[in-house]
Specification:
The protein is mostly helical. It has one domain. 73% of the residues lie in helices and 0% in strands. It has two helices and no strands. It is rod-shaped and about 70 Å long.
Length: 55
């Protein structure tokens, strides 16, 4: 009986670690992508709407 309780907690902890680990990796991937290629050269970038000559 004690072994079943340990197994249930172990599986739950593993699921939590995997989910949050994947989320952390995804955040780092997105941050690095935005750092390397921010996309500021695109014509519809919000920066160009703010920095227009008519403002």
């Amino acid at each position: 009986m004690m072994m079943e309780a340990w197994t249930d907690h172990w599986v739950g902890n593993l699921v939590i670690l995997v989910v949050f680990g994947l989320g952390t990796i995804a955040c780092f991937v997105v941050a690095l992508r935005m750092l390397i290629h921010p996309g500021e050269q695109e014509a519809h970038h919000p920066k160009y709407g703010i920095l227009r000559d008519d403002r």
